Amino acid sequence: MPILDDYITDTLMRDLVGHDRKPVSFLVYLWLAAEHAKTRADVQASYQHVAESVGISKSSAQAAIGWLLKRRLLGMKKKSATATPVYTVRSPWREAARRLKEHS
């Protein structure tokens, strides 16, 4: 089983579920983070694949991914307009901590 950063359940869950009122976004982030932890690679997945893996509708997966992109918790690349996206799971809290450590 992949080990996830404590920040995900201690802070991010409250932020996405409570503050943003986007619980599906948290579930999608959690699934993508787990997939990334398993493979140590970016995750290539269609909206349909995400939806089936999380147990939500395709439109809910699309909305959740849109929100995560807006919040910069995900990055996305596509080879063409119709290609299956490749998602980079971002951890801005780690990046901020690393920057602080480098400057101190």
Question: Top keywords for this entry?
Answer:
globular; 104 residues; 10% strand; 3-stranded antiparallel sheet
Please summarize the sheet with the most strands.
Answer: 3 strands, antiparallel
Unreliable stretches (pLDDT < 50, length at least 5) are none
Portion in helices? 55-70%
General form: globular
Structural class computed from helices and strand pairing = mainly alpha
Computed Rg:
14 Å
Please state the average pLDDT score: 90
- Give the CA-CA distance, first to last residue: 35 Å
Widest beta sheet: strand line-up: 1-3-2
Secondary-structure element pattern, one letter each:
HHEHHEEH
> Number of helical runs?
5
Kindly estimate the percentage of residues that lie in beta strands according to DSSP: 5-15%
Number of strands: 3
Characterise the protein shown here.
Helix content is 62%, strand content 10%. The chain is mainly α. A 3-stranded antiparallel sheet has the order 1-3-2. The mean pLDDT is 90.
